């Protein structure tokens, strides 16, 4: 979970999508239309927690319908607090995966049957490793899989690289790719220019699913705490938490 710009993300920019006229026009898509019955779903998260921010509601819906699920965490998220003595990388490399376990538990995920792959790639350095990352992802995909990952133009270098690498892997294997925006919500200049509104679909969430998703996000204590000693604000800005209250998630098909 990294903002496209640390300074912008941590100040809490305006939620431009909330006032974008295109938002109300996005068609609703059913879960069955998105994921065929019985299909395996693979969620590829650049950093621990991106799976909750991008599709925590979808994960709940998929779990209730007993779809086989696989989570691939590309990095351990240890570079989220650069220069911090409170949250050094060695501590975060342990803490952030633990936070993901708790977040998934709060979502009601079947941890006993969830296949979880940890990539071990270096956080905040994925663009330079795009080709080996794509090969790594392809190793864990099967034809007919439905893959959910970050949008390749999300505005964060790691998110974009994972989106591109996932697209290549899906094309090679024969899996279906869907992309989800996270930080693109907070980039005003992208409205009507870069956002692929024609590809956007809404997945409806009920109030209980929204509440569980928000509860899961609060499992990331490291991301809710900055480091006042070096003037580092929380990574998970309040504006991001407020956006998670929306009764839907957006998928680019």
UniProtKB/TrEMBL annotation:
Gene3D superfamilies with a match to the protein in the record: LmbE-like
SUPFAM superfamilies reported for this sequence: LmbE-like
GO molecular function: hydrolase activity, acting on carbon-nitrogen (but not peptide) bonds, in linear amides
Listed InterPro entries: GlcNAc_PI_deacetylase-related (IPR003737), LmbE-like_dom_sf (IPR024078)
Pfam families: PIG-L
Protein name, as recorded: PIG-L domain-containing protein
Organism name: Pseudomonas palleroniana
